[in-house]
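Need tokens for this chain, all 174 residues.
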Amino acid sequence: IDGLHADELVRVGSGGSEVTTSNVTFTTLVDVDLDIPASGFVLLTSQAQFKTQSSACAPCYVHFRFHDQTATTTPTSPVQIASIGFGTTDIIDVPGSATWVFPVTAGPRTFALESGTFPSTASIAVVNPVITALFIPFGPSGAAQTAAATPNAAPAAPVRFGPLRSDGSRAIIR
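Here are the structure tokens for all 174 residues:
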């Protein structure tokens, strides 16, 4: 497209660590299915509104995360936590959003946005949850992935691609 190779259009990288653990019971709010064509990455984004008017929430907490329901190793993103409620019966709305990148291999995949509350008896409604998934075949170096890898892994050496040749190929410049 306009002289750009596919790996120059989109790449993905991510960094982060989980510093919060959660012992709440998670339930699926919404999920999305993708048929992954090759190894690469899936970028997930989500948003939801959390609502309470319970005077028992002074405050209560909503925990939410992504869950790769097909993966057998590291199937969840770090937990996001939102505090909600002031101990009154006033309606309180709190927005929640998350973004995460999962490494993937070819095949069908299901990704879910999950949430749970603390305390477990908290009266919190979830309004308009949305999840979006985007498959990205290229990691941070621009190279196509041959197997699922961590998206924040640093490339061995910077990789650049030369100009487009008449046959549609490009030279790798190191």
